[in-house]
Amino acid sequence: MSKLDFLNNLGLDKQNSGVSTGTEWLSGNGSLIESVSPADGSVIAHVRNANREDYETVISQAQDSFQEWRKIPAPQRGEIVRQIGNAVREAKADLGKLVSWEMGKIYLRRSSGNDRHLRFCGRPVASALRLHHAL
Question: Residue 77 belongs to what H/E stretch?
């Protein structure tokens, strides 16, 4: 068992793309950066950045996706965000370990930061339901 087993659980490899449209990961043609743990100086993984062309592709896709997203009723959008929150909850321990290694912090201390993000995922659902029932 490796101290970095959580990377496998999160679907991360030693080299990863840092470029995504939200529906697919692009290979990325930019620089390669190292994620280094300040705790012991070990390399956690490498991330391939976007170049200008990759950036333009992602922005174009985001603009197109927004045109479709805004047509989805608020309660359905809220439900999608709730499902994202559930996926984050399922990976909470592994995400906490990743942040701990990247930031050089004690693992237990990071779980409260994840909780803030999880609470945020519930807000759109509540807001959407209030809006929907108000109409």
Answer: helix 74-90
Tokens of residue 3, six digits: 């101290």
Among 51, 71, 91, residue at a domain's last position: 71
Which tokens sit at 98? 């990743």
Which pLDDT tens digit goes with each residue over 23-63?
Answer: 899 999 999 999 998 988 999 999 999 999 999 999 999 99
Residue 113 has which token pair?
Answer: 């930061």
Domain termination site, one of 17, 51, 71 = 71
Chain centroid offset of residue 20 CA = 10
Tokens (6 digits) for 64:
């197109």
Give the domain extent around 114: 72-135
Token code pair at residue 74 = 């608020």
| Residues 55 and 97 reside in one and the same domain | no
pLDDT, tens digit, for every residue of 102-123?
888 877 644 555 566 566 666 6
